[in-house]
Predict the structure.
Amino acid sequence: MTNFLVTITELGSELFAEFLYILPYLVIGVLAEAIVRTFKWHVKIRKALTRFGILAIPAATLLGVASPLCACATLPLVISLLLAGLPLAPAMALLVTSPLMSPASFSMLSGMLGTSWALTVAVCAILLGLFAGYVSHFLRNHGFREEMLFRQALPEGDFHDPSYPVEQLRCECGQQLSHRVDRCTHSKFLVFLARFWEGSLKIGKFALIGLFIEVVAMLFIPNGWITGLLEGQGVFPIFALTFATIPLHLPQVTAASMLFGFYLPEPGQVIPLAKGAGIAMLVGGPVTALPVMGVFITMFKPRVLLLYLSLCVGGTITLALFFRALSPYF
C-alpha cells in the first residue's frame, strides 16, 4: 500500500510539473482562439467559401489552419456547407485541415516541441488539405457529386435549432456559456472571457490527457521500446504509428503533450524525434478521430468514408516519407 501511494504521489508530481511548464503556451493559444471566436472571423470566411469558385480549395485549407474548431465540431459544419451548395472538394480540405492546426495547437507545439515542429505540422496541414481537396475535385464526376454523398436526404432546417430531427448533427452551441452570456449581456468583453474559459477547459483537458498517458506509459512500457519507435529512421515506425493511431481519438494537443512529456525538452532544445515518426503521430492521429468516422458511417455512403480514410492515411504516410527523405538536409 505504501509503494502504491508513493507511486501515485510521484505520478501526480510529474504531471503537475509538466503541466506548469506548458501552461504559458496554453494561455497564449487559448487567448488567440478566444479572439477569433469572439469576433467570428472564421464564420465570416466560412460563409464566403461558396462564392470562392476555383479558389475555394486553398481558401478552405487556410480556414482550416486558422480555425479553432476540432474535427468533431467541423464535420457538422462541413455537412451544412455541403447542403448549402459547397462542393465536396473544399469541404474535404476544410475537414482534413481543421484538426491538424489552430492558434492553440501552434502555440502549444511551439512551446512543447519547438517552433520547427510547429511549422512542420502547419506545412503538413496545408499540404494535406490541398491534397484532399484536389483529389476530391478530380473524383467529383466519378461517384462523388454532392447529391451522391449522403445515405439519405437530410431534412431541411437549421442545425442550431434544438428541434432539428437529426440528433448527430444538432448543434448544442446555444447551451455553451459564451452563447448564454451573449444573449444576456451582448458584451464582447464578457463573451471573450467566456470563450477563453471554454477554450481553457477544452484544450487543457486534452493536454492533461496526453501528459497522463505519457506518465503512465513511462511507468509500464520499457523506455527503449518507445525511443526506438519515436526516433527510428526507417519506414517501420511511420507505418506502425500511422495505423496504430487510426482507432484512437488523439487530438493534436494530446499527441503533442504525450511527446513533450516523454522528451521534456529545455527551452530551445531540439528533440531527437524522427521526422517520419513525428509526422505519423502528430498528423495521422488527429485526422482519424473515431467520433468523426462514426458520423461518416451514419450520414454518408461507405465510399465517402473510404475516400476520407484513404486521403488521411495515404496523405500522412506520404508526408512522413517525404519529410523523412528530407530530414538530412534540415
Notes: The chain has one domain: 2-329. The mean pLDDT is 76. The two ends are 50 Å apart (CA to CA). The first helix runs from residue 2 to 39.
